[in-house]
TrEMBL record:
One BP term from GO: amino acid metabolic process
Domain Aminotransferase class I/classII large: 105-463
Region (Disordered): 21-61, 472-512
CDD domains xref list: AAT_like
UniProt keyword list: Aminotransferase, Pyridoxal phosphate, Transferase
Annotated protein name in UniProt: Aminotransferase class I/classII large domain-containing protein
Length: 512
């Protein structure tokens, strides 16, 4: 027997197994230790449990969580019977006037190789050309391929940006995109500071709020524009003023994934971007995130981009080598031809016409059901309705058979109708867990997506109408057109689930 094997044999003979046979120690675990309250208490510490290195506070984002709950009611078994108005994705099939969605991708030797972590040059150049054509005509400073970084999806882009930020206060506004929540809590190189927006003015960001942020030392500001979930976009003059106020004082990060979904300009195909107000593309600290996901309706491709100063782009390309490895090369190559400016303008015009019709249908149905929210619920962009449940008129009777007064309860009731929405509290970002989530001003809201096809929207609005009728006592509790008996209830209702998470400090969300 070799010396090494003798050492292993001696060590093995000296070990003592725990009562369950899983742990081994050089010290025997005697009866007193097994019965000792202090020892049992110590064993309950996460460091002594299975998967000791796992941070169990990381859970799904609101959107993913809603589908996980729907799964318990059979969503994954028969998705065609459901109306998923929760997923933040547009319909991916062909639309009149839009170019046909690709059904094949050519492959060559280069596409089988690893690609640059900042993206292939041809796609970077195509993105730069599109931005110059749409937003920078006549301006001296122009974007080049070196101002563009291709990333594998918007969340990957946000994570890259977070990784290269220095020590800073980072301001963000609520409500906003659920995936920001975990990104803002994972990184320790900045402190995330929330600023609630007012429901009274439709959750708009105003320049005076930005000025207040700068006055208290905020040097990075993150926001979606157009905004998810409210569907509003900053007016052009206010966006320009915000950029002027922040120039040389703060880094602005604009999530512009819904830039093409614009309904206030006659559906002419024009889009929204802070790129129009940049003075010098290499000196203005403005980072823009967009991609094929939303306005080109190719979410499964995971091709997105960040546009900004060359110094930022170089750092973002470098960190891709250890964060995500870069974007799929064949999809990048296939995307180049899609970004020809005239083609994009035609695409956006058809997209806007189609989605505006769906928006108007959903708003009309909600109004007929009894939700009278005025123009606050008439988004001029995105494909979301930020529905205030307190606008139901007339109000529910006090003896209502079901509670739909808040987003979680409404979501739970809709599961019985095979319809999915997203409770509003998920957009009240709370990355440091400093606030009680159930005190959230977003608690009585839900986000409804009109991204799916019209037939799904019709099915989902029918489900919402049945829930409201049940709450009014106008129809049997489970006599819906979807089923005669309720599906098996979720073992823990959404409300109890989130109360439990709040009490244990586990209400974080994972990147969507």
């Amino acid at each position: 027997m070799s010396f090494s094997n003798r050492r292993v044999s001696v060590l093995r003979d000296s070990l003592h197994a725990s009562a369950d046979g899983r742990r081994f120690s050089v010290h025997p675990e005697d009866e007193n230790e097994r019965e000792s309250a202090s020892h049992r208490s110590l064993r309950e510490h996460p460091g002594h449990k299975h998967h000791a290195a796992l941070d169990t506070s990381r859970s799904s984002t609101g959107v993913i969580w809603t589908t996980e709950q729907a799964q318990k009611h059979g969503f994954y078994d028969e998705p065609e019977k459901w109306a998923n108005l929760g997923q933040g994705a547009p319909e991916v099939g062909d639309i009149d006037g839009c170019f046909p969605r690709p059904d094949s991708i050519p492959l060559n030797d280069n596409s089988r190789e690893y690609g640059p972590t900042a993206g292939i040059k041809t796609l970077r150049a195509a993105v730069a050309n599109l931005y110059n054509h749409d937003y920078r005509q006549g301006k001296e400073s122009q974007y080049s391929w070196e101002n563009v970084c291709i990333v594998p999806g918007g969340r990957a882009g946000l994570i890259r940006i977070a990784a290269v930020l220095g020590n800073a206060y980072l301001g963000f506004f609520i409500p906003d995109y659920t995936a920001y929540n975990e990104m803002l809590s994972l990184f320790r190189n900045f402190v995330a500071i929330p600023t609630p927006l007012s429901a009274a003015d439709g959750y708009h960001i105003h320049a005076d709020k930005i000025a207040d942020e700068l006055a208290r030392g905020t040097s990075v500001i993150l926001t979606s524009n157009p905004r998810n979930p409210t569907g509003h976009a900053l007016p052009a003059e206010e966006l320009k003023l915000i950029q002027d106020i922040c120039r040389d004082r703060a880094t602005l990060i604009f999530d512009e994934f819904y830039a093409g979904y614009r309904y206030d300009n006659g559906c002419d195909g024009s889009s929204i971007s802070a790129a129009e107000n940049v003075i010098d593309v290499d000196l203005d600290d403005v980072l823009l995130i967009d991609g094929l996901t939303k306005r080109f309706r190719l979410p499964g491709w995971r091709v997105a981009w960040i546009v900004g100063p060359k110094d930022f782009i170089k750092a973002l390309g470098s960190c891709g080598s250890y964060l995500d490895g870069g974007t799929n090369v064949p999809f990048q190559e296939a995307a180049v031809s899609m970004l020809e400016p005239a083609k994009v303008r035609k695409e956006m015009a058809s997209l806007q016409t189609h989605f505006k019709a769906k928006r108007d249908y959903v708003l009309k149905r909600l109004n007929e059901i009894g939700f009278h929210a005025g123009d606050q619920n008439r988004p001029e962009s995105t494909f979301y309705i930020w529905l205030d449940l307190t606008t139901l008129d007339p109000p529910l009777p006090k003896n209502s058979p079901i509670d739909i007064s808040n987003g979680l309860a409404f979501f739970d009731a809709l599961l019985e109708e095979k319809t999915i929405v997203v409770p509003g509290i998920f957009f009240d970002l709370n990355p440091a867990k400093r606030r009680d989530l159930f005190d959230s001003p977003c608690h009585h809201f839900v986000r409804i997506s009109y991204g799916p096809k019209m037939e799904q929207l019709e099915k989902g609005l029918d489900g919402i109408e049945r829930v409201v009728k049940r709450a009014r006592g106008e129809s049997p509790s489970y006599g819906s057109a979807v089923h005669d008996e309720p599906d098996q209830k979720t073992p823990r209702s959404p409300i109890q689930f989130w109360k439990g998470k709040e009490q244990s400090g586990l209400s974080g969300e994972r990147l969507q």
